[in-house]
C-alpha cells in the first residue's frame, strides 16, 4: 500500500478532536470548578477532592465496559450514546446542591466519558497506523495540552461572570462536547481499516511494498487478554503504568505547593513555572512520539528517564539554594510528560499486539489510575517525613524502575511472539 492511498487521515483528526474537546474541556479543565462550586454551595475542598477520586475510578470501570462495546458493536453509535450521556450528566450537575449528588453525577459522567478520551484515541490510532504509530499517537494526545490552554481562559471567563458562572461554564462544556463529538463520531470515526476495505498506514516505497501480502501475513496479530494477563510481560507492563502514574501525579500535583513554600511570594512564581511547564509539555508530547518511532520504545524511555532525573534534580537544587532560575529546570521533566499518555498506548500494542488491544489497554489503565491516586498521597507522606528534597530523589528512583520495567515488558513480548507466532 502506498502512503498516498491511505484513507485514515480523518481518523487522526477525530482522535485529535477527542483530545482537544472532551478530554481538554471536561478532564484537563475540571479543576477550575472546585473553587467556585465550593464557594457557592459551601463545600470543603477536601470533600470536593473526592469527586476527582471517584471520577478517576469510574472512568477506569467505564473504559473496561466500553472497550468491549467498541470492539463488538457499532463504534459510531456507541460513541454518540456515551457523548449524549456525558453531556446530559453535566447539564444535570448544574442542578446539584449536595456533595453526594456531585459524587453520583460525575461518577456516572466519567463512566460515559471513558468512551471519549484515552480509550478511543488509543484504539483508533493503533488500528489505523502500523508505522509511525507513536508519532501519530503523540499528535493526537497533543490536542489535550493545546485544548487546555485554549479552553481554560474560556471557562474561567464564564465562571467569573457571576455567582452562577460555574453553571454557565458547565452548560457550555456540555453543549460544546455534545455537538462536536457527535459530529466527529458520525463523519470521522472509523473503527478499523479492514471495515473500510483499506489497510493501515505503512511507510516505504513501491519496491518495499511488492510483497505486501507476505508482509501482512508476517505481522504479529498478538494475543488475547486472557493470555496477555497471564504472561510475565503483563506484570512488567503493570510495573510501567504504576510507575508512570505515581511519577506523573506524585510530582505534578505537589510542585505548585513546593515552589510557593520556597519562594514565599503568594504564588507568583508558581504561576510562571506552571505556564512554562504547560508550553514545554506540548513540545515534549510531540517529540516523544517521534523519538519512539526513530529510536524505539526502550531507548526513548531511557532518554525520558534522564529528562525526569534532570528535572527533579533541578527541584532538589532549588530547595537547597532558593535560586529562582534553577526551578525552571523543571521544564526538563515537562519534556518527558509524553509518558503518561503515549507510552502506555504504544507499549500495549508493541508487547501484546492488536488482537485484543482495547480490553488489555482498559485493564492496564485501571492500574495507571491506582498509581496516580497513590502518587499524590505518597508525596504528602514522604515530604512530611523527610522534606521535598528527599521526595524528589525518591521519584528519580521511580524513573529508573520505570525504565527497567519497560525493558522487561519488551523482553516478555519477544517470548510471547516466539510462543504464539500466529497469535493465540
Automatic annotation (TrEMBL):
UniProt keyword annotations, A-Z: Membrane, Transmembrane, Transmembrane helix
Ranges for domain Major facilitator superfamily (MFS) profile: 8-414
Pfam families noted in UniProt: MFS_1
Record's subcellular location: Cell membrane
Membrane topology classification: Multi-pass membrane protein
Keyword Manganese set for record: no
InterPro entries: MFS, MFS_dom, Proton-linked_MCT
A single MF term (Gene Ontology): transmembrane transporter activity
Aminoacyl-tRNA synthetase is among the record's keywords: no
Membrane-crossing segments per the record: 49-70, 77-105, 111-129, 136-156, 168-189, 233-252, 272-292, 301-321, 360-386, 392-410
Recorded GO CC terms: plasma membrane
UniProt protein name: MFS transporter
Organism: Candidatus Choladousia intestinavium
Source species taxonomy: Bacteria, Bacillati, Bacillota, Clostridia, Lachnospirales
Amino acid at each position: 500500500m502506498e502512503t498516498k492511498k491511505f484513507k485514515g487521515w480523518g481518523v487522526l483528526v477525530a482522535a485529535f478532536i477527542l483530545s482537544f474537546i472532551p478530554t481538554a474541556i471536561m478532564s484537563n479543565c475540571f479543576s477550575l470548578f472546585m473553587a467556585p462550586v465550593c464557594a457557592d454551595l459551601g463545600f470543603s475542598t477536601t470533600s470536593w477532592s473526592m469527586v476527582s477520586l471517584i471520577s478517576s475510578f469510574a472512568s477506569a470501570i467505564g473504559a473496561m465496559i466500553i472497550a468491549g462495546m467498541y470492539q463488538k458493536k457499532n463504534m459510531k453509535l456507541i460513541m454518540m450514546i456515551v457523548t449524549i450521556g456525558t453531556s446530559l450528566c453535566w447539564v444535570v450537575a448544574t442542578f446539584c446542591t449536595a456533595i453526594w449528588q456531585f459524587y453520583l453525577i460525575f461518577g456516572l459522567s466519567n463512566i460515559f466519558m471513558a468512551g471519549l478520551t484515552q480509550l478511543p484515541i488509543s484504539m483508533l490510532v493503533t488500528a489505523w497506523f502500523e508505522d509511525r504509530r507513536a508519532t501519530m499517537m503523540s499528535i493526537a494526545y497533543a490536542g489535550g495540552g493545546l485544548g487546555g490552554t485554549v479552553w481554560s481562559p474560556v471557562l474561567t471567563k464564564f465562571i467569573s461572570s457571576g455567582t452562577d458562572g460555574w453553571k454557565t461554564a458547565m452548560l457550555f462544556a456540555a453543549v460544546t462536547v455534545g455537538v462536536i463529538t457527535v459530529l466527529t463520531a458520525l463523519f470521522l470515526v472509523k473503527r478499523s481499516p479492514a471495515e473500510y476495505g483499506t489497510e493501515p498506514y505503512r511507510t516505504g516505497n513501491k519496491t518495499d511494498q511488492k510483497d505486501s501480502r507476505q508482509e501482512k501475513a508476517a505481522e504479529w496479530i498478538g494475543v488475547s487478554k486472557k493470555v496477555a494477563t497471564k504472561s510475565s510481560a503483563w506484570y512488567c507492563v503493570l510495573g510501567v503504568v504504576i510507575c508512570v502514574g505515581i511519577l506523573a501525579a506524585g510530582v505534578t500535583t505537589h510542585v505548585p505547593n513546593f515552589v510557593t513554600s520556597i519562594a514565599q511570594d503568594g504564588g507568583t512564581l508558581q504561576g510562571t513555572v506552571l505556564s512554562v511547564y504547560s508550553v514545554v509539555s506540548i513540545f515534549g508530547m510531540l517529540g516523544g512520539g517521534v523519538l519512539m518511532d526513530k529510536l524505539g520504545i526502550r531507548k526513548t524511555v531511557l532518554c525520558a528517564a534522564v529528562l525526569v532525573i534532570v528535572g527533579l534534580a533541578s527541584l532538589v537544587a532549588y530547595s537547597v539554594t532558593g535560586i529562582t532560575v534553577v526551578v525552571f529546570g523543571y521544564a526538563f521533566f515537562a519534556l518527558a510528560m509524553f509518558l503518561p499518555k503515549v507510552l502506555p498506548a504504544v507499549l500495549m500494542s508493541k508487547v501484546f499486539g492488536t488482537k485484543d488491544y482495547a480490553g488489555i489497554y482498559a485493564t492496564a489503565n485501571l492500574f495507571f489510575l491506582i498509581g496516580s491516586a497513590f502518587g499524590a498521597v505518597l508525596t504528602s507522606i514522604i515530604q512530611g517525613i523527610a522534606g521535598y528534597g528527599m521526595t524528589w530523589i525518591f521519584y528519580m528512583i521511580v524513573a529508573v524502575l520505570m525504565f527497567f520495567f519497560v525493558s522487561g515488558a519488551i523482553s516478555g513480548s519477544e517470548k510471547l511472539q516466539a510462543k504464539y507466532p500466529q497469535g493465540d
